[in-house]
Task: structure prediction
Amino acid sequence: MNWPSVGVVIPTRNRPELVRRAIAAVRAQEYPGELTVVVVYDQTEPDQTLATADGTPVLVLTNWRTSGLAGARNTGILALDTEFVAFCDDDDAWAPEKLRKQVAALLAEPDAEFATCAIEVEYEGRTTARLAGCSRVTVEQLARSRMSMLHSSSFLIRRGALASDAIGLVAEDAPGSQNEDWDLLLRAARRMPIVHVDEPLVRVLWGRTSHYAYEYATKISSLRWMMQRHPEISGCRPGAARVYGQLACWSAASGNRAQAWQFSKEAVRANWREPRTAIALAAMTGAVKVENVLSALHKRGRGI
Result:
């Protein structure tokens, strides 16, 4: 089998120990083809001691595009000349067989451009597998649910599709570089279904290490950006209710009760069974705190 070359983009900022773990897991891949790692430092000085030409080469760069995760990923994509590009966040780690299984799945379908895999979520010492229950992912599925098991650290994409108008680069105008991964999935799935390996081949670390855990204003603006950008979401009643329910929760968490109430009403109009609406209403009355609900869900490998 002629295994294609793969470049792995690892954006990082102020997490020296975690990024070393991520790099080590990528370099330990049981992948027969050529493998290159690009570590892109965003809004911080790069650690050039990570660079090496031995074994799997590691290149260290500074983000020269828009500040933030999206710009850092694009810096890495454009620095590579490999056939495929894979993403790995600096606080995540791959199983040794991750790339080999995903590349094999993509090569089995010559027209396919994008592959994902399932994940396992690590939170407060507890690990939970998140599976999709399918081998193909469509626009309709992604509009109905973000499908959080399709984590960005599982993305494997043909570089030619990313660096051209086929799929295109990561959206650098995404507010706070949030939901840029969901946006990329939807754009890719419009062209053809995403190939999915339903095995937990990526361990995702959740918790306070996230740069975005409690940035509620950014969460709100990025979700509204998604609704404007992707009519498939508002055109799917359960999907729209899900987003409005999230918007209501984040508004309640930030103390904006009027906005939380408005989003709750929109969620009920779209789907009165949407459970996030109940969380938002309880938070508005002071019965619960959104942070406590989020922590309880994280222990089960889920989020709001």
Notes: The first helix runs from residue 16 to 27. The mean pLDDT is 95. The longest strand covers residues 194-205. The radius of gyration is 19 Å.
